[in-house]
Amino acid sequence: MRFATAARERTCRERARSTRCMRGNVIKRPAPARPARIPNSVSRPTMTAKLIDGIALSKTLRADVATRAAALTARGHQPGLAVVLVGDNPASEVYVRNKVKACEDNGLFSSYDRYPAGMTEAELLAHIDELNRDPKIHGILVQLPLPAHIDSHKVIEAIAPEKDVDGFHVANAGALMTGKPLFRPCTPYGVMKMFEAYGIELKGENAVVIGRSNIVGKPMALLLLQANATVTVCHSKTRDIAAYTRNADIVVVATGLRNTLTADMVKPGATVIDVGMNRDDLGKLCGDVDFANVKEVAGHITPVPGGVGPMTITMLLVNTIEAAERAAGKA
């Protein structure tokens, strides 16, 4: 009995000592690990994009145009471009003046025919037929948009494919689809020249084109595809455009809407081509891209103005020279 009592007393003393230790915080157990904190947003690396200078590249290409024009002229085949304007759209007047001046500055003959907005469709088609048969004219450009009573598709199809330097005729659009274009539409052609001049790799790259117009979006996608890029076309009905652009190495934006592409939609280091031409709240020219912020994420970017715009007119000159060279070869 004495042994049992002693054992019980010893157990009680040990329990009391244990209780006192816990009360005095002598025994410290490790605190449970805190769950990792998940940030509300993932920080994106920033950089200052390299500007793709359309003005400087245009000067280089136009110098080549002038050399080729001089060679043709010396052989009695001065390249000739006919520009037709119907109506008094102020923006169209500016574009036409710039095109005519570019021709004059680089050794091309330019015919500028301006008609009132009341000109009939039949009268315009008859004039185009005259230009088609004029051997001095190698390229025909009808400035769009046309007045509402004139069918622009019918007018474009009336231009001889071999003089369709805009590349809009259905025959040229079909040839572009097969990879053997007679003429490439000027704006997408200019963008491809930018990629080439700045050493921007396209083969195997993910490219997103925002916009599906016949003038820019669709031909741009085809040219990128022919350069072995993996191409996605987004448009006004696309759900969550950012889901596509965030994985894109190349983004070409041609919507005519300011801030179509913002910095949070861009993959760090991507090449961003802004085809848009808009006005901001202060009336200054701007594009479709939030340039100020996107340039801190992109690797290359085109400014507005001074990016794609000058290249469009330059490639019109290039197409006209090519048309004249083909005509001279047949003479």
From TrEMBL:
Gene this protein is translated from: folD
Enzyme Commission number(s) from the entry: 1.5.1.5, 3.5.4.9
What is the species listed in this Swiss-Prot or TrEMBL entry?
Paraburkholderia piptadeniae
Protein name, UniProt field: Bifunctional protein FolD
Q: Which reactions appear under catalytic activity for this entry?
A: (6R)-5,10-methenyltetrahydrofolate + H2O = (6R)-10-formyltetrahydrofolate + H(+); (6R)-5,10-methylene-5,6,7,8-tetrahydrofolate + NADP(+) = (6R)-5,10-methenyltetrahydrofolate + NADPH
Which NCBIfam families is this protein grouped with? PRK10792.1 (NF008058), PRK14186.1 (NF010783), PRK14189.1 (NF010786)
Q: Which GO terms describe its molecular function?
A: methenyltetrahydrofolate cyclohydrolase activity; methylenetetrahydrofolate dehydrogenase (NADP+) activity
Q: Which residues form a coiled coil?
A: none
Which UniProt keywords are listed?
Amino-acid biosynthesis, Histidine biosynthesis, Hydrolase, Methionine biosynthesis, Multifunctional enzyme, NADP, One-carbon metabolism, Oxidoreductase, Purine biosynthesis
Amino acids binding NADP(+): 211-213
Q: Which CDD domains match?
A: NAD_bind_m-THF_DH_Cyclohyd
- Relate the protein's function as given in its record: Catalyzes the oxidation of 5,10-methylenetetrahydrofolate to 5,10-methenyltetrahydrofolate and then the hydrolysis of 5,10-methenyltetrahydrofolate to 10-formyltetrahydrofolate.
